[in-house]
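Incident log, structure service

09:12 report received: a user says their structure output differs between two submissions of the same chain.
09:20 pulled the input from the user's history:
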Amino acid sequence: MKLNFIIIDRYIIRKFITTYFFALLLIIVIVIIFDISEKIDDFVVKEAPLKAIIVNYYFNFIPYFVNMFSPLFVFITVIFFTSKLAANTEIIAMLSGGISFKRLMVPYLISALVIAAFSLTLNLFVIPPANKNRLIFEEKYLKSSKLTYNRNIHFQLEPDQFIYMESFSNWNKTASRFTLESFEGNRLISKLSAETAAWDSTLGGWRLNNYFIRHIDGEVERIEHGARRDTILNLTASELIQRKGAVDALDYFELNQEIEKLKMRGDDKVKIAQIQKNTRFAVPFSAFILTIMGVSLSSKKRRGGIGLNIGIGIALSFTYILFIRFSEMFVHGDVLPPDVALWVPNMVFAVVAAVLYFLAPK
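09:34 re-ran on a clean worker, output below:
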């Protein structure tokens, strides 16, 4: 009997994994065809080299796309091949042969573990550098992906330093009405103001024009002023010219550093980074939940056949993906913290999966 279990386990795992990657390959080819037809004019107008299109764009686009729709592929895969097993009465034969429904779930969950590990590896170490190259290509040959802080820039540079710029120009990398305040505890010890502050890449710092510095020592103040002053700050012009999806290009360690830096600065974009971090873990974990749901839904032979099960699978998969996107609004609206909001879809679908599992024919 133990040998039979092992044979059945290998059979289900092989079916699950091969069907999953076949579905990936099929959908990727279709998506690339549609994407080429949509962007072909931009490629021609911008004279994008064929090698850059293939290597820098599509090779880096594929992992991003695969991971985005991983829940859909997992669910459809489980629904598809489990429905075929049920239609061929193979599941009935397994259960009649002494395999419990609980035991039947083991090879499914092993397969889900493989897919979850694959998705997590993509999320943490493969997709970020791929996104970096993809974003550079899009910026050069497609629509610009840059965003610029324009007006009223105000945040914390260091625990004891605060900076303010009335405006910043991406064109000449220059800020107007520049102010830098330094504190010692809760006491202001100096305030530097300049008419303009221009980024100097050779200096690796900022060139201040028409500056004034107030040095405050208790009740004694000393004023210093001049036409030009160079200063090094924990801030570069590139940090004021951020790309859309910039956090997508950060690996796990870089993302943690970015979150800490944005928290210190009081930058509201920390929410975007926190959403990205939690999504990278929440989506791979969904492989287990959606697998249990898929097996529970499709293990019984239905009159509607495989088509009905696949229809249900697609509907539930897209519901999950939309739920993930909707949960981001909880973070932006300060309703829930990121490490809770991004896991709400998994929590809800876990309850649904448990109900379906107990209702499934045993």
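09:41 both user submissions now match this output. Likely a transient worker issue. Closing.
09:42 reviewer note: The chain has two domains: 2-143+270-359, 148-240. The radius of gyration is 27 Å.
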